[in-house]
Amino acid sequence: MKGSPLLRALVLGCVIFVLGWPLHLLTQRGQEAADKALAEPTASVVKSALPLVLTFSQPAQRVELRHLGAVVWVKDHPALHETLELSLPFPKEGLELGVNVGWTGESPAALRLQLTSPEGAELERTVWGTASVETIVPFP
Amino acid sequence: MRLLLFSLFSLLTACASFAAEPLRVSAFSSVLAEIASRVGGGEVAVTSHVPAGSDPHEFEPKPSDLKTVAKADLVLLSAKHLEGYVGKLKEASGGKVPVLEVGAQLPSLWLEGESKNAREEDPHWWHSVENMRKAAKLVGAGLIAARPEQKGVFSANLEVYTTELTALQKWARVKVAELPRDKRKLVTSHDALQYFAKEYGFAVYPVTGLTASEQPSSRQVADLLKTIKAQKVKAVFAEDTANPKVLRQITAETGAILGGQLWVDGLGTGAAGTYEGMMRHNVTTIVDALK
């Protein structure tokens, strides 16, 4: 290659810039997208009114619902169908309810929980037990 | 006649002492040593080769360990590539001692390796209580195979131990439920809590990979700092076998607190010297710090 060393260096610099600039833009956009994804709020701390329907297969003596370790609803001798509304935060990861139920009989029994999420999704879980059960129920 | 009676008595005494000889079990994990002791009860003599609080990833058997293995009736290994020295053990035993690779019969979690398309099997299966129950049954079966006449004792002990594990699992679920699901983010020194995370719905952000001795690159640390800030992680956790230097940097630069020390590579010491104690310590430390 002919020409002065200065000219050759300038040409090389231009080539590197022309090739490197689009690459820089591409990687920058990728990084920005990744940063944005990371910065997305992971949870809604706002409480929502969550409709919940409890259906017992046989009469219960007592039912207790807990959220984050605290009792949020409790009832002695509930009806076979109970409709209630819980005011709880529902992050995108979901929530868990602690369920403690005692039935009057000794035979196997069930409790169905139908929760409606803030987005309107119907989430259904069933708890089985004999005489009583204490468990954690995840939604979804 | 006297001589005959004496000989008969000596023979009976010898037989009785032979029958009472405990089953010799060599365990290469403090967790497996506990399982063998609990299920075997007084019928087994367990040697725990990897001391509590030491790093099993770095452990290498000494000649004295190999001698013990050669005389053992059963060898217990965590498996899932945790014991790179398994060949040495088999060689030491001359292939005559049954080697039970417990983890090989448990479901695996696979983690992304350092190179692209490389996946590594996570060996820390004991952080799932469900896996522990399965492991106890496997060890129980191994003990029964080694000494079938003690099946009743081993089965009864197994029943008691698995009932305790079930209660522990229930307690852990209730305790973890105190923590909102969007706050279940674990920043730990190395990637040892994936089985725990899967069982209790956590996301894990480890400083390094599967072994505590790995050193993170500056790029890895920078990425982690960014994640901790973006995810608003409240606390990070030190480990028994890992250098806390990077965690100190993380707490200084992100405002996250040091949530405490977790026992991740086996049983701990003091109250964490049993599986139940270790799990209760880890779960309580994590939940209370992230609340």
Topology, element by element:
The complex is a heterodimer of chains A (140) and B (291).
Chain A: H1 5-39, E1 47-56, E2 60-67, E3 70-76, E4 81-89, E5 95-103, E6 108-116, E7 122-130, E8 132-139
Antiparallel strand pairs in A: 1-4, 1-6, 2-3, 2-5, 5-8, 6-7
Chain B: H1 2-20, E1 23-27, H2 30-40, E2 44-48, H3 63-70, E3 74-77, H4 86-92, E4 99-101, E5 110-112, E6 119-121, H5 129-146, H6 151-176, E7 185-188, H7 194-200, E8 203-206, H8 218-230, E9 235-239, H9 245-254, E10 257-262, H10 275-290
Helix pairs in contact in B: 2-5, 2-6, 5-6, 6-10, 8-9
Report on the architecture of this protein:
- The complex is a heterodimer of chains A (140) and B (291).
- By secondary structure, chain A is of the alpha+beta class.
- Helices cover 25% and strands 49% of the residues of chain A.
- In chain A, the strands form two sheets. In chain A, strands 4-1-6-7 form a four-stranded antiparallel beta sheet, with no helix packed on it. Chain A has a four-stranded antiparallel beta sheet with strand order 3-2-5-8, with no helix packed on it.
- Chain A is rod-shaped, with a radius of gyration of 29 Å.
- The N and C termini of chain A lie far apart (68 Å).
- Residues 36-44 of chain A have low confidence and may be disordered.
- In chain B, helix 2 packs across helix 6 (151-176) and helix 6 packs parallel to helix 10.
- Chain B has 291 residues and is α/β, with parallel strands linked by helices.
- In chain B, a hairpin with a 6-residue loop joins strand 5 and strand 6 (119-121).
- Chain B has two domains: 19-171, Rossmann fold; 179-290, Nitrogenase molybdenum iron protein domain (Rossmann fold), CATH 3.40.50.1980.
